[in-house]
Design brief:
Blueprint (H helix, E strand, L loop, with lengths): L1 E9 L4 E12 L2 E4 L5 E5 L9 E6 L5 E6 L1 H12 L5 H57 L7
Antiparallel strand pairs: 1-2, 1-5, 2-3, 2-4, 5-6
Length: 150
C-alpha cells in the first residue's frame, strides 16, 4: 500500500523513521492517518530530516520502495491547484450536482405520472370505442331487424 510519510530522527534509537501521514485508498483517493504511526528506517538509511516521501509498504508492513515526494507534490499542485480548484469550489460543484440529481428525479417522477395518466386516458378511450361499437351494432340490428308480415 502507498503512503505519504515524513522523515524524522528518532533520537533515542539514533535512527531515522518515517511518520505516516496519509494512505492511498484508490487512484486519486487518499485518507489522512490521524494517529501517529512510525516506521524505523534502520541505521544505514539516512534521509534528510522533514523530507516528504512516498513509501510502498508490503502487507506485513515492510518497506518495499521509498521515493521523494517532490515530483508527486508538484504534480498535485499543477493538476489541482493551478486551475483554481479549491475545496469550496468542489463543495459548490457537489451541491450543484445534488440539485441537478434532485431536479432530474422530480422530472422523472413527473414523466412517470404523465405516462400513467396517458395510459389511463387511452384505456378510457378504448372502452368508449368499444361501447360505441356495441351501441352502433345494436342500432344497426334494430334498423335492419326482421320485418314481420301479417
Amino acid at each position: 500500500m502507498l503512503y505519504l510519510a515524513q522523515v524524522h530522527k528518532n533520537e533515542f534509537l539514533d535512527q531515522h523513521q518515517l511518520q505516516l501521514l496519509a494512505r492511498q485508498e484508490a487512484e486519486n483517493v487518499w485518507t489522512t492517518i490521524p494517529e501517529e504511526a512510525f516506521i524505523l528506517l534502520g541505521k544505514g538509511n539516512s534521509l534528510a530530516e522533514k523530507l516528504l516521501v512516498l513509501v510502498e509498504l508490503s502487507t506485513t508492513g515492510d518497506i518495499e520502495k521509498i521515493e521523494e515526494a517532490t515530483n508527486w507534490v508538484l504534480n498535485l499542485v499543477q493538476t489541482y491547484l493551478s486551475t483554481g480548484i479549491t475545496p469550496e469550489f468542489l463543495q459548490q460543484e457537489a451541491e450543484r450536482a445534488e440539485q441537478w440529481r434532485q431536479s432530474l428525479t422530480l422530472q422523472n417522477q413527473d414523466l412517470a405520472r404523465r405516462s400513467l395518466e396517458l395510459e389511463a386516458r387511452r384505456e378510457q378511450i378504448q372502452a368508449l370505442e368499444e361501447t360505441l361499437k356495441r351501441e352502433k351494432n345494436g342500432l344497426s340490428k334494430d334498423e335492419s331487424g326482421p320485418s314481420v308480415n301479417s
